Records
---
Amino acid sequence: MSDDRMAEVFAAVRLGGVDPAAGRRALEKLWDELGEHGGVLQRCVVAHHLADLQEEPAEALRWDQRALAAVFGPGVPLDEGLRGFLPSLYLNLADSHRRVGEFEVARMQLAIARGHLDVLASDAYGALIRTRLKGVEAALSAGSVERLRAS
């Protein structure tokens, strides 16, 4: 994986935090440049963050599915780094399914996310994912399809 390419990815992610439309355009450009044969981690990170920048829940779901598909592509070894993304990837899938009203699928994805929590460290990132999981779980229990506030 090229450090320059990942620097571009993270710059686009930061841009999305300030200007979602510009960040979305930058990440979509990177996605197109990476193509089907781009690096697994790069494709996963780009799709994962593109999902967060979508205005429509169905589009967010599509990008969440692409992020997970990048990790589980043919011949991709599931190394420790990729396993560390699984709780967040499944959590985002659960949230997107919830937002499109697919509550049973959301519950299943949430259970899978919960099953992967043991790979997370007891650090700020692990706490963030665990907190977000509780938020999605509460929204799901309430039957809400509204976007959750960013933590």
---
Amino acid sequence: MFLTIPTLMTCTRIVAIPLIVGVFYTPLEPATRNLIATLMFIVFAATDWLDGYLARRLNQTSAFGAFLDPVADKFLVCASLLVLVHLQRTDVFVALIIIGREIAISALREWMAHIGASKSVAVHMLGKLKTTAQMVAIPFLLYDGVLFRGFDTGVWGQGLIWIAAVLTVWSMVYYLQKALPEIRARISH
């Protein structure tokens, strides 16, 4: 069950990273680069939903897929944020908050799983809202143009990425609070 269709779809998100970054090093017009990178991000980000759906539908869920899926998501988001910082479309502080939280919560979840308390840091609605805000903000910022006679994706993307940063901190505090009783119990023994 290593090379299932859902797992291969998850792998495409990792393969997408150099492709999205590479678009910005092509001799294409800036607006064309922005559009291609935006469409690529949207297509590859959509595989996150699709691979999970297919894994359940085809009964091809696996421990490897459960491990790889969030890793692929984090790679895609972090790489896109670094591109956006490089293009000066988002603040480095926002990228540090989001990337730092991803590292911290991933480490916390790994440790909690190691001590048999992974349910205390299970995915919560705050984390889902944070992810949604990120996944809408990033393509807006990658596109960085005007749609529909006045919808400035750069402005909306900036607002959403800051909302994502706030939700990032909020969800991190939530997960740490949930883990704290287990941490205290382990330290006192």
